Amino acid sequence: MNKIMRHGQVGRSAPRLEAREKATGRAEYVHNLRLPGMLYGKIFRSTIPHGRIRSIDVSAAAAHPGVYRVITAADVAKVVPNPYYGPAFHDQPILAIDKVHHVGEPVAVVLATDPHVAEEAAALIVAQYDELPAVYDEVEAMTSKAVVHDVLKPAGTFPDLKHLQGKTDTNVALDFHLRRGDVAKAFAEADHVFEHTFRTKAVLHLPLEPFVSVAETTGSGLTIHTASQSPSFVRIEIARLLGWPENRVRVKVPYLGGGFGAKLYIKLEALVAALALIVNRPVKIALTMEEQFFTLTKHASTFRIKSAVSKDGKITGRECEVWWNGGAYADIGPRITQKSGFTAPGPYDIDNVTIDSYSLYTNLTPAGALRGFGIPQLVWAYESHADMIARALKLDPLAFRRKNILREGNAQATGTIMRDAAIEAVLEQVSARMDWEKPFARSSGSVKRGRGIAIGFKASISPTTSVAIVNVAADGSATLYCSTVDMGQGSDTANAQIVAEVLSIEAEAVRIVHPDTDVTPYDMATLGSRSLYHMGNAVRLAAQDAKAKLADLAREVGVPEGSNIPIAELFVKKYKMQAGNIIGTASYIPSYVPPEAETGQTPNATPFWMVGGAGAEVEVDTETGHVRVTRLVNVGDVGTLINPRIVATQLSGAAVMQYGFTMQEQIETDGGQITNASFADYKIPSILDIPPMESEAVDAEQHDGPFGAKGVGESGTFAVSPAIANAIDDAVGVRISELPITPEAVYRAIRARNGDPLEDA
């Protein structure tokens, strides 16, 4: 990997701070938590996608030996009068009220001291429904007579949703529009017009630690132990639901066994909180692998993209329509619709752009953020579209991209000037690693070889706030208090390196206190690769505050300026013994200008841009449609590398995840029923599936990032899917427009190309 060494901590591949705890099995996870008197909850779920609840018979469950109590929405209403939650809309009830909106929606909960007893009893509950018409497709939802929610209830957090308050007869949770230049004129004057439609299916986060939360009542209020990426939000939202001040709610988060966006906002926390208040005992709910399929997915999407292109291959205009399948509850879908929607034209310099991006309710499992915040769905479309244009114009795909790429100092579609976005550098490094300019060996038998490239970018979410506290002890060690959640991405280690760099100590001398809202200060959430930039800046500033106070202490005790005296000696000089401490604090809030409502234009759309590129080489068996990826190159712009080894594993891990979404993963449904809700049927990549991979970062710097750094967790996902699809097209001349790229889809496309299409059975 690249990048500089500074004083020895930033740029160092320091071992992960928690490595020993995890390797020895001592790391704390909520799944391991047992509290005195704790009850286990098992959820009874809806079996239909949409309907009014006629009755819920819990008598058999309540009479089952060992059952403590059975809870329904009527019980919840006694402790939470208005039990609806959500980051964008207050649309999701703690337990279903009057209606169910998707298969698997929680309807009732059985509590018992034994989870197996609770599970047996939950199977005895019987509910009757009056079924209602349902809608599953995101495009159909725009005009469907099947309306998922009777009335829209924006949470009030986001100004661009307030106009929807009280709206009825619609499945549109947000419609975002961007207008730049004169698109109609660009198409009228174009030498060529290309239009294509691409689709992606719903897929699953599937962290190997499923959702789990525990709530217990205390003398002062409520403590929630939870596997969450957003403890500060959980505290605020639970306090709002209960009508309490925040200081009565405590949220504690140990390590997470994966998250990828699934464990954001409220998932089980509101339910366990209500249950604990009802029975006045600790309550734990831990979902099974199957239950994850009913909790949150990645947005399925449809993307229609149309481009005006000149004779020499310059894109002069682009029209984008994106429909996001948000499922039964909005979650953070409206933010994806806007924040990712405005990047739909791609990392290209296009003067005339129109974008319409829609967040839609459907009667499927709710969809939310999943490692890329909608960007992989968009890159899949616009980079496949780019290759299709290049091939139609008989241009080299790399040359076509070089002609149109957004460069430093040029304006993106929002009007925001691109700064510190190494788009060109990533493209060139991918091409260099792929030896793009050299001859490529192809085969003449039934197995054909091909190669492809792709590039994508992402804006970081705004506005957000991060706060950090650095406590320097009298022996010179330091403790960092922040609410960033380490879920495997290495944030604890990276933040420790930032503290150590500022204080000129070793990263191993820094301890990280895991998120605890009574102890660690506010952080918006661990999402969207924001932590290293946002929290990293807050940590850097807090460490600098502590360093300044140490300098004040040195002057106070008469140490000459510039003396390299150990920190421990300063405290001894002050207190005549090992005593005392220094506290540094800071917050970081990057600047941001909201987009104009009518045009989507803004001079400051994001604090930083993320860039990811990929190259793929494939072998396609024309007799079976089987695709083997023989090489996958992944390059990202992450600014300065705080920890090169962690960056490499983040890029490769992201690529592996997206590879699964590209080649094999999809949630299959039939009439709203999920038909592959298990590891037996939903296949994620095994070690035998992963292709040979090369992952690296370009030499770049984010000038306002902590020591020049910015996030990396998502960059590796962006371009994998279209790079593989482009390579398949290069090999056998067929274009796959819907993910995943299954052997059947490739074989059908080859047969259709040969004029011998397969008939559906």
Fold and architecture overview:
- This protein has three domains: 135 residues, Aldehyde oxidase/xanthine dehydrogenase, molybdopterin binding domain (Aldehyde Oxidoreductase, domain 4, 2-Layer Sandwich); 190 residues, Aldehyde oxidase/xanthine dehydrogenase, a/b hammerhead (Aldehyde Oxidoreductase, domain 3), CATH 3.90.1170.50; 323 residues, Aldehyde Oxidoreductase, domain 4 (2-Layer Sandwich).
- The strands form eight sheets. A seven-stranded mixed sheet has the order 3-7-1-14-11-12-13. A five-stranded mixed sheet has the order 9-18-17-16-10.
- Helix content is 26%, strand content 24%.
- The chain contains 19 helices and 29 strands.
- It is of the alpha+beta class.
- It is globular.
- The N terminus is likely disordered.
- Helix 14 runs parallel beside helix 15 and helix 15 crosses helix 16.
Please outline the helices and strands:
Layout: H1 19-23, E1 39-45, E2 51-57, H2 59-63, E3 67-71, H3 73-76, E4 84-85, E5 92-93, E6 99-100, E7 106-112, H4 115-122, E8 126-131, H5 138-141, E9 172-180, H6 183-188, E10 192-200, E11 212-217, E12 222-226, H7 231-242, E13 249-252, H8 269-279, E14 283-286, H9 289-292, E15 297-298, E16 300-309, E17 315-325, H10 333-340, E18 352-360, E19 367-368, H11 375-392, H12 397-404, H13 423-433, E20 447-459, E21 466-473, E22 478-481, H14 491-503, E23 510-513, H15 531-556, H16 567-575, E24 581-588, E25 609-621, E26 627-637, H17 644-663, E27 669-670, E28 673-674, E29 693-697, H18 720-732, H19 743-753
Helix pairs in contact: 11-18, 14-15, 15-16
